[in-house]
Structures are given as C-alpha cells and as structure tokens.
Amino acid sequence: MQPSRRTSAEVVLAYAFDSSAFTATEAIGATGLTRSTVLAACGELVQLGWLRALDDARAAGEYHKGRPARRYALDDRAGVVVGVDAGQHRVSVAVADLRGTVVGRAVASLGESGLDVDVRLRAVRDTVASAVADAGAGPDRVLVVVVGIPAPVDGRGVSPRDGGYWDRMNPGFASLAGSGRVVVENDANLAALAERPSSGDASFAALLSGERFGAGIVVDGVLLRGPRGGAGEMRVLDLVDGVGSPEGIGATARTLVAEAADRIPAGSLLAGPSGSERLFEAAALGEPLALEVVDRLGDRLARVCVLLASLLDIDRVVVAGAIADAAEPVLERARVHLAGGDHDPVPEVVASRLGADVVVLGAVTRALDVVRSEMLAVPLAVTARAAG
User: Fold this and answer.
1) pLDDT tops 50 at residue 5
2) What backbone phi and psi angles, to 5 degrees, belong to 212?
3) Mean pLDDT throughout 369-375?
4) CA dist list (Å): 323 to 6, 266, 284, 352
5) Among 218, 83, 231, which residue's Cα sits nearest to residue 160?
6) SS3 97
7) pLDDT by residue (tens digit) across 21-58?
8) CA-based nearest residue to 131, from 115, 118, 142, 121
C-alpha cells in the first residue's frame, strides 16, 4: 500500500536532507514512491517552504533530449536551529542552517553570577537572541533550540531535584524558542554526539575535563542516558583512590599549584595569581614543579580512564572541552601511567579537536536530529511564513 501523502512528503523530505539538488526520477529511485506521489510531495514541500524548485535540467545544462526534468533542493534557510552551551560561567550559542552550517554566533560571560537563576536565564535568552540576529534570522525562523547544561537530564529534559546546583543549572528554558521547541540535554552527552563522527565504530566516552569531569558515553553505538539521565555523572570519583573528587583538569591544576605555592621559585611562570593558567607553558620549559603537577594530573586522569574502561568496556576516552587544546602534556602522562599498569582493558586516550565548541556543536547536531525525526511536525513557523 502506498503511504499517505503526508507520510510521502516526510519520506521525500528525508531524502532531500541527504541530497543536494535532485530530480523527481532520482527521488523515485531512492524512495520507491511513484512519480505522481513524488511530484505531489515535492509540490507540497515547496508550498510549505521546505524545498526550493530549481531551474529544470535544460537550464542547468544537464538536459539532452526529451522533456526536461524538474529539479528540487532542500531550502537550507527555511528555518534555523540553535545550539547552546549554558555552562556555569559562560554561555556560548551557535545558530545553524538545516545543513548544519553555522551562520551565527554569540558568547556571554556569567562571571561569578552563574548560580543566580534570574541572571542565568536572562543571559541565555539574550545570547540566543544575539546569535539569531547575527545569523540574519528572526525569532520566527527558529525551529529547535537545544540547551546543554552541566547536570543530569532525563528524556523529558528534567534534572533530578537537589535543592542546589542542578536546580540552578536547569531552572527551565521554555521561553527561548518562541514558536519553536526547546530541548534540554546534558552537556557531556552533547559532547559525545559531536565526537561520534570522529570515533567511528568505537565505544567511547567524551570526557568534559575543565572545571568538573563529566562523561557522555556511547557503547555499541548507543548513547547511554539512564532513567534519570545520570549515566556518565562522575560523583563516584569522590570514592576513587587517587582521584577523590569530580574536579576536572583545570580546577585540579589550580588546586595543586596553590598547594605548592611555597615551593614556587622566584621568576617562575607559576608565580603570581594566574600561575595555574601558565602551567603547561611552564612544563614545556622544563620547570620541575610544573612537570610534577602535570604528572599528578596525568595519574589522576589515568585513574578516571581505567574506571570508565573497566565499567563500560570502552575503546577510547576523548578528553573534551576548552582544556583539550592545552592538555596534551597531561594526556601523554596519562598514557604513560596506563601503559605502566595492569589495568586491561586500557582505552585509547585522545584530545578532542573541537575545543571549546564541542558542546555547542553537539547541541546543533541534536537540534538537527529533532528536526529530521519529527519533520513536518516541527516547522509551524515555516508553514506560516510560506503561507504568508
């Protein structure tokens, strides 16, 4: 039985997402629908604003003889999606078209006010608006907003109530998208989505490693979540010998440098209030104390990697977040500690190539997944725009 026209439109739209310009004949071959059904679906999608009708094959120089074929393409700017990395101290926003090309950005610092719910909501809302404006789009063009937060999130976008940090990180973002949808997701899970293309078939953990450790975990191709969104939460590190807390590489570096303050020689790059920020530069110059701190950070990271690999049998740990750009010396020491122990399976430890953008790009990926999975149910603003 042929699918209904509405379903046929969704089938053709899914094909358009994966194609450049196409003819009805090409869509027929890919979808198995009849010519009349494909042409009707394409007409509907053009009317709704999803597809653009292009010059026919004769005008495009592809026609040889017979009646020239009609050509269509996804309208990349029919709507936009918004990815948000809403950390405690910084908000980063990227706006992308329907092909995933980033067309607008904005960043805001929360400083020490990130735990103030009103400040946080206002900063996220204003930064989203700035990024959408930077993309040259209006609020009515926003189809989906995905917000990544440093807290566990279940399938409904809800975090466990803890009366403290998690409540403040996820106070409710429903007003961000206007007529579009808002999806709230754990930031490490979004990092895993961003890292998935570079990890191939590997089971891996994307380990956010700056202020706090948090892992997005993919096993056998499936992103693990748990009923309360707690998969990958690292509070268990409080109980791990040699680790002792979920503090990430950046936070632990500050702690270790501060603890060694009385051993820092005059003139060292570690001297002064910003010494921990120059740790890796000092280590590259061979400063003994800096090398010691880097080795301790590497040992600590190795223990976290062993825990993840032992529990989940993963192949790879991708150290992600802004710290990944500078932390290669720590990763190298972690590899040495892993190689010197008896901790099979030992995962590959690599640095993310996405830097500070890993969460926001994962949020864009998630937003596009929502658009594609719900297809014609999402773009009500597009329909209204096309009809007007």
Assistant:
1) no
2) -140, 150
3) 87
4) 47, 27, 16, 10
5) 231
6) coil
7) 999 999 999 999 999 999 999 999 999 899 999 976 54
8) 142
Which residues partner with 53 through β-bridges? 72
| pLDDT tens string 106-119 | 999 998 899 999 99
Q: Which of 144, 139, 147 minimizes the C-alpha distance to 178?
A: 139
By CB atoms closer than 10 A (0-12, 13-18, 19+), residue 1 is: exposed
CB 94 within 8 A of CB 365: no
CA 7, CA 51: separation in Å to the nearest integer? 16
CA torsion 185-190-191-196 (nearest 10°) is: 150
Give the β-pairing of 316-320 and 348-351: parallel
Res. 132: pLDDT tops 60: yes
Going from the C-alpha of 200 to that of each of 15, 121, 192, 193, 219, the distances in angstroms are: 23, 36, 12, 12, 12
Place of tokens 């009103």: 118
Can you read off the two tokens belonging to residue 80?
Answer: 């936009």
| Helix (H/G/I), strand (E/B), else coil: 27 | helix
Check residue 348 and give left, alpha or beta (phi > 0: left; psi -120 to 50: alpha). beta
- Other CB atoms within a 10 A radius of the CB of residue 36 amount to 10
For 193, the 3-state DSSP assignment is: helix
Sign of the CA dihedral running 342, 345, 350, 355: negative
Residue with tokens 């707690």: 230
d(CA 80, CA 97): 5
CB 73 within 8 A of CB 54: yes
Measured N-to-C along each axis, helices 288-312 and 328-339 cross at an angle, to the nearest 10 degrees, of 60
Edge-to-edge strands of the sheet including 71-74? Answer: 22-23, 71-74, 51-54
